[in-house]
Amino acid sequence: MIPLKSFSFVLLLLFPFTALSTEPRSPLMPPFEQTIENTVKRFIAAFNAHDSHAMANLVTDDIEWLSISNKKVMIEARGKQALIESMNAYFKACPTCRSELTHTISTNQRVSAVEVAHWQGKNGPSSQQSMSVYAFSNGMISRVYYFPAE
Predict the structure, then answer these.
(1) Which of 26, 78, 110, 111 counts the most CB atoms within 10 A of its CB?
(2) What is the pLDDT of residue 33?
(3) pTM, whole model, 2 decimals?
(4) Residue 121 Cα to chain centre, angstroms
(5) Per DSSP, which regions of 26-139 are E strands?
(6) pLDDT 10s digit of each residue in the chain, 150 long?
(7) d(Cα 18, Cα 112) in Å, to the nearest integer?
């Protein structure tokens, strides 16, 4: 049996941690510290919820979404409003589209990921994978490089 004095001491030591663990969280908030990798995970969660405004909350005002194909780099969206409009059109065209990150690696200002897209096609469930790189500025996504699907 733990003496009452020792039990009180243990409670005092644990109190700050229990106070932190009961903090209410949004479903899109990372479970622990704010990292650029967690920001990408939140971005994908917002994508999967088809919430273009939540996606826009995680990017810089001058966001650029770039598609890389062979020798070409195409700007798919430039600026928050263009990102919202582009995502809304995409969600309307593909209401079953979802994405998951299967592998990520981070540097100080970039997150590279293997993303697997899933959707319901005419012949049943479909999927494809591609590489993406998320560049950051002041903790916000400033550029997305999206490579061709495989």
Answers:
(1) 111
(2) 58
(3) 0.76
(4) 24
(5) 59-69, 72-78, 98-106, 110-121, 124-137
(6) 444 443 333 333 333 333 333 334 445 554 445 799 999 999 999 999 999 999 999 999 999 999 999 889 999 999 999 999 999 999 999 999 999 999 999 999 999 999 999 999 999 999 999 999 999 999 999 999 999 998
(7) 34
Beta bridge partners of residue 82, listed in sequence order: none
- Conformational region of residue 34, where left means phi above 0, alpha means psi within -120 to 50, and beta covers everything else: beta
Q: How far apart, in whole angstroms, are the C-alpha atoms of residue 83 and residue 56?
A: 7
Strand order in the sheet with 59-69: 72-78, 59-69, 140-146, 124-137, 110-121, 98-106
Q: Are 66 and 146 in contact (CB under 8 A)?
A: yes
Amino acid at 23: E
Bridge partners of 98, per DSSP, are 118
**Torsion angles phi and psi, residue 104, rounded to 5:** -135, 155
Q: Which amino acid is located at 94 in the chain?
A: C
Distance separating alpha carbons of residues 9 and 146, to the nearest angstrom: 53
